[in-house]
Amino acid sequence: MKLRSGAALLALLLVGGLARASSFAGFCDAASPVDPATLDRELRFAARVQQLLDASDADIALVARAGLKLDLIGQRYSHAAIAQRDAPLGPWAVRQLYFACDAKRSRLFDQGLAGFIAGARADSERLRVSIVLVPGAAGRALAAATRDDTRGLSVLAPAYSANAYAFSTRFENCNQWVAELMAVAWGDARDRDAAQAWLRAEHYEPIAVHAGLLMFAGWFSPWIHDADHPQADLAAGVYRVSLPPSLEAFALAHAPGARRIEICEDGDCAGAAP
User: Fold this and answer.
1) By C-alpha distance, which of 212, 230, 119, 102 is closest to 174?
2) What pLDDT is recorded for position 55?
3) Considering Cα of 217, then 219, then 222, then 226, what sign does the dihedral take?
4) What pLDDT does residue 218 have?
5) Which of 116, 124, 126, 214 is the most exposed place for a label (fewest CB within 10 A)?
6) Coil/strand/helix, residue 228
7) Host H or E run for residue 195
8) Does pTM top 0.90 for this prediction?
9) What is the DSSP string of 46-105?
10) Which residues 6+ apart lie within 8 Å of 221 measured at CB?
């Protein structure tokens, strides 16, 4: 029973971008109705985040939400996306990978900032967002790649895995797509193989998730896979996956002038661990 619970937890920790459109193995159930107080809370926080973005010198930003309890794997943020000042959907709307439950495949999804922040609803303590502002030439290049459907789709894999290995093209999770889009923007990658080769050459470091008994999660969850991971990692009980901190560290190292801001609804939480 403990193993089954752990498997479900790891799937929830890493799934991040699930679209809740239909029922599939329990993870695609329809979203619960939102009470007016919760909706007001989310809209107020989203307005605060947008004001911060509006006041910045960047036209694009990496945004990550904290919507799930990640203490088990020592992480806070599960799902990253790219926000654009002049997005067609509206100011600072985000583009992201999500899993389309009805189609059982990954797709690109544009969503308003408030809707993205609402994905943090599972964290009953407080809403929290991590932002990396990307100004200048690097920001313009990333913005161009984000807006270009062809380039974005060139590094989109239909096969989803919550714990996708960062250097395999067999599966992909929401954060891995963001990593590979940076390779498209800054390394002129044209497909997933080229994107991952460029990320390796530029010393991209995925997060090493020490899964322990959760390595058996694939027995119970359709979102967890081992087939794309190196045997040495599996033997050591490690999944090397893209999570928001790995994306942020890479962007901060490769985009001149990039800076990170963390904001939570009960005050400025920049610099708080982890």
Assistant:
1) 119
2) 97
3) positive
4) 47
5) 124
6) coil
7) helix 192-201
8) no
9) HHHHHHHHHTSS-SEEEEEE--S--GGGT-S--EEEEEETT-TTSTTEEEEEEEETTTTE
10) 7, 8, 10, 11, 25, 27, 162
CA distance 249 to 177: 16
Task: Give the C-alpha separation, 81 to 119, whole Å.
Answer: 12
> Which mean pLDDT values do the consecutive 10-residue runs of the chain (274 residues) have?
41 42 44 80 93 97 78 78 96 95 91 88 71 98 98 97 95 97 98 98 95 52 84 92 97 98 79 43
**Quick one: tokens of 75?**
């992480």
pLDDT of residue 118: 85
Token pair in block for residue 141: 């290049």
Output DSSP code: residue 213: G
Closest of 230, 79, 115 to residue 168, by C-alpha: 230
pLDDT score, position 264:
86
Taking the C-alpha atoms of residue 211 and residue 221, their distance in angstroms, rounded to an integer, is 15
Joined together, the tokens standing for residue 158 give 């239909």
Residue 204: C-alpha distances to residues 208, 225, 253, 261 (Å) = 12, 22, 10, 21
